[in-house]
Amino acid sequence: MNGTVTIARREIASYFNAPVAYIFIVAFLLVCGTLFFFFETFFAAGQASMRGYFSLMPIVLSVLAPALTMRLWAEERRQGTYELLLTMPFRDGELVLGKYLAAMAVIATALALSLPVPLFVSMFGRFDAGTIVAEYLGALLMASAVVSIGQAVSGAAKNQMSAFMATVLILLTLSLLSQLTMLVDLPSALAGIINWLSLSYHFSSFSRGVADTRDLVYFMVITVACLYATTRLLSAGKWR
Fold it and tell me: Residue 157: which domain range?
């Protein structure tokens, strides 16, 4: 556990000692705020609801989060510190978990800084605080899955740009999969499989303020599976 905390602190410091964390946070807040207030017709809707704000999360995180995850392992290779890091007295799981927690800390900071938005929205009417809690919980769970996928891709990629592009492509595909079932008349079994794979499909309940256990399990399974895959990639790298 001490190794995980050490790696997490190292990665958080590297995020905030460089412009990466600040650019991500500002871009996240500006994109979500602009799209919500001006393109989601919040003022014309005539009701106090954050549903439009959180419905943007799958696409926004699919595009912005890879900027955080692309460097997790690809940057280590570029700087020549990858092999050195693997020889340090840390377990592979501690390295992977530490980097995961650091990226999550940056995203959690961005979400925390978005709290003035629901406070502003509350000026136009009353809404259930439990709904907001469920929406933020869903955003964190989806961010967890996104970060773990991005770290796995970074662990397999040769450089940051290829890690970024591959992660964006994978995440956008997973986010937009559920749209396919709306546009194409598919067999119910196939439509069910496609929806189960879709990030936005599982996040849709949270965006409405409903915490569904099945969606929670989905995000946790994706997170654990991708973190485990990254650990196996590190182990394979040591043998090579």
Answer: 2-239
Q: What is the CA radius of gyration of the chain?
A: 19
Give Cα 236 distance to the centre of its chain. 26
Report the domain count for the chain: 1
Tell me how far apart the alpha carbons of residues 206 and 55 are, in angstroms, rounded to a whole number: 9
Tell me the two tokens of residue 72.
Answer: 């997790």
Q: What is the pLDDT of residues 55-103, one digit of tens each?
A: 888 899 999 999 999 988 877 777 666 666 667 777 888 889 999 999 9
Q: Between the CA of residue 13 and those of 20, 43, 102, 110, 218, what are the distances in Å?
A: 11, 39, 9, 16, 31
Name the 3-class secondary structure at 50. coil
Q: pLDDT (tens digit, 9 = 90+) per residue, 206-240?
A: 877 788 888 999 999 999 999 999 998 877 765 55
Rounded (to 5) percent helix, strand, coil in the chain: 85, 0, 15
Between CA 121 and CA 37 the distance in angstroms is 10
| DSSP states of 165-211 | HHHHHHHHHHHHHHHHHHHS---HHHHHHHHHH-HHHHHHHHHTT--
